[in-house]
Amino acid sequence: MTATTTDVSAAVARFAERFHAAVGTGHHVGSPLGAWLLLALCAAAAGPGSRTDPALADALGVSPEEARTWAQGLLAARHPLVLTAAAAWTGATAPPTTAPRLARDLPAAVATGPLPDQRALDAWAAENTQGLIDRFPVTVTPETLLVLATALATKVSWTEPFHTAPAADLRAGGTWAGRLTTVLRSPSGWGHVSYVARSRRAGLVAVHSAQAFDAESAHGLRVTSVIAEPGVPAADVLAAAYEPEPDEVSLFDLPLGEGPLWTITAEETRTTAADGREEWCTSVLPAWRAGNDHDLAAGDLGFPGAARALAASLGLPEFVFEARQAAVAAYSRYGFEAAAVSVGAVAGGIAAEPRKGVLRTAELRFAHPYAVVAVATGGDTPWDGLPVFSAWVADPEDAEE
C-alpha cells in the first residue's frame, strides 16, 4: 500500500513536533522533512531488520516500507523551487556486500558510491544547498563504514516584496518593539494573505502567508508565520503552524480595540459585500535569519533504532552512530532562503559516553516569538502541501529599507 501525500504530510507534521521538542524553544530553524527522509533512508538501508523496531515505525508515522516508497516518489518528482538530493556512501572497510545491497534496497533516486573525503563531502553539501551550507555536518574517519545524507534547499523571491514600516508599529507591548528599528508590512497585492484563525492547540492565532511562485511549472512555496498570545507553549504554536486548514475567524466575531496580537477598528465605507460587511487584514512582522546544528540522535526521533538496525545489517557487534542536521534560513523583505543537510553515519567501535555540554538560548504584532513553516505547493505531486522547513523565531533583525 502506498502512502498518500496527505498521509505522509501528517506523518511529517507529527515528526516535526518531536523534532522541535528535541531542539528546544531557542531561536532556530530546521527541516523536519530532511530528518524524516534521512530516517526513511536509514530504515531502507537496514533492510528487514528495520521492520522489527516499533520505535522506528512510530517515529516515521508509517511503516518503513511505506516510508521508502514515498521517499522514492518525493526524490524522483523534483519540485522546481526545492532543490533535493540524497546519497549513500560506503567506507573502504565496509563488508563487500554493502554497496550492492544499498543499490538494491534504497530508492533509485539515491546516489550511491564509495565514501568521499571530507573536502568532497563539504563540496556535496554546498552544491546541493545552492551554497547556503558549505560544511558537511559530520566528520568521517577511517572507521566510518556507511554515511547516508539528504539535502533540501530553496531560494525564492516573494510574488510582491514587503513594504517597510517603523518598528513602533509592533506596539509597545511586544517584546521587540523597542529593540528593532524597521520591520516588514504586508502589501495589498497578490501573494500575501493575513487573517485570524482558531487553532486546535494554540487558541486564537494571527496568521500571515507569503507566496513565491514559479509561473512556468505552477509550483510554489508558501511561508506561513503563526503567532499566539504570550505564554502559549512553543510546541502548541508550531503545531498550529503545521495545521493544513486552519479555521479562519471573521473580524466581526472579535471585539474592537487593541489586544495582544492585533488591533481591530471599524469605519463606515462603501462595499460590494452581499451582507454589507467587509474585512481586511495586514501584518507587521520582523525580518529574521537563523543557522543551527542539530543532534538528531537526541530526543524521540527514531535514530537509535535505525542505528541498531544499520549496525546489524553491517555485522557490527559494537558501533558508533552519529546523526546531525545543519540548517540555515533567512526571511527578508524580498524573499526566503533555507537549506538543511541531514546526515547519519555508522562506524565500527564503542560509542563514547555522552558529555555535559552547554545549551545557549536567547531570552529575547509578530512582536514576540512565533512559528514559521514553509510548505511546497502546486500540482498533483508528492510535494503538494508538504512542509519542507520550519522555524521558531525568537531573535529577529531589522528589515532592509
Description:
The chain is an alpha+beta fold and 401 residues long. It folds into two domains: 5-155 and 288-352, Antithrombin, subunit I, domain 2 (Antithrombin, Chain I, domain 2, 2-Layer Sandwich), CATH 3.30.497.10; 163-285. It is built from eight helices and 18 strands. The protein has helices at 5-23, 32-46, 54-60, 64-76, 98-105, 118-127, 234-242, 303-313, and strands spanning 28-30, 83-90, 111-114, 144-157, 163-166, 182-185, 192-199, 203-214, 219-227, 247-249, 257-258, 263-264, 284-285, 288-295, 319-331, 335-348, 370-377, 386-393. It has a seven-stranded antiparallel sheet. Strand 2 (83-90), helix 5 and strand 3 form a beta-alpha-beta unit. Helix 1 (5-23) packs antiparallel against helix 7 (234-242) and helix 2 crosses helix 4. The chain starts with a helix and ends in an 8-residue tail after the last strand. Residues 351-364 have low confidence and may be disordered. InterPro entries: Serpin_sf, Serpin_sf_1. It comes from Virgisporangium ochraceum.
